[in-house]
Write a structure and sequence with these properties.
Blueprint: E1 7-12, E2 15-18, E3 24-38, E4 56-60, E5 63-71, E6 78-87, E7 101-112, E8 115-125, E9 131-142, E10 150-154, E11 157-160, E12 169-182, E13 188-200, E14 208-216
Antiparallel strand pairs: 1-3, 2-3, 3-4, 3-5, 5-6, 6-7, 7-8, 8-9, 9-10, 9-11, 10-12, 11-12, 12-13, 13-14
Length: 217
């Protein structure tokens, strides 16, 4: 939300692990973003018609692919690194996004008792002087509340190298809570909710964020 207007962003993120007979596995990850906003909410022209008279317009933004080479290790800390690339798949008149571009990314995760921690670090170059660094810290503490609810932080801190001053940073501050359900089929479903105040944001950017996620393993 920004200036009392609400915008929406949905991301479909398929992840697939490819084992190898060498000293690493390859993790492929896609990020498919769908955005929606009311006129004047920071995404004014998404190139589609309002849905059901709600005043919301929707569009596909630029798709990104990431590939992580993860060394095989018996250590409790896992890490990986590799390339990322973006495709200019945005709908007509969708504003923002890297367009055609590429960059590098790294990931690390570890566990210690009831604490799990990690993060994703990356930098991406794209069209129209797009140059963005992203830090996504992930820290969760598992509790005994309601059979194993976890509480922590999971969000993206970004720095836009093409901007200046406070407009370059976006720093959300808040918490996420969730729970993982183990199904009889052998799959797991994770559900989480998060609320964040954006302490520093670009001009016209969101000042509050509400996050909701579902993951299937």
């Amino acid at each position: 939300t920004a200036d009392d207007q609400t915008s929406y962003g949905f991301q479909v993120q398929p992840v697939y692990s490819i084992p190898t007979d060498r000293g690493f596995n390859f993790i492929a990850r896609g990020i498919i973003p769908i955005v929606g906003a009311r006129e004047g909410a920071g995404l004014p022209n998404l190139g589609t018609e309002p849905i059901g008279g709600s005043g919301l317009t929707w569009g596909l933004s630029d798709i990104m692919f990431q590939g992580f080479f993860v060394p095989k290790s018996d250590s409790g800390i896992k890490f990986g690194f590799g390339p990322q690339m973006s495709l200019r798949t945005r709908s007509d008149r969708v504003v923002g996004g890297p367009g055609w571009g590429g960059g590098l990314a790294a990931v690390v995760f570890g566990f210690s008792g009831q604490l799990s921690y990690g993060g994703i670090l990356g930098h991406h170059w794209g069209q129209d002087s797009f140059s963005l660094s992203t830090i996504q810290p992930i820290i969760f503490y598992s509790t005994n509340l309601l059979g194993g609810v976890y509480i922590g932080y999971s969000n993206s801190i970004t720095y836009d190298w093409s901007a200046s001053g406070s407009d370059a940073w976006q720093v959300p501050v808040g918490l996420t809570a969730g729970k993982t359900f183990i199904l009889d089929s052998g799959y797991m479903v994770d559900v989480n909710l998060g609320g964040y105040h954006v302490a520093t944001a670009p001009q016209g950017g969101a000042d509050q964020q509400f996050k909701f996620g579902i993951s299937l393993f």
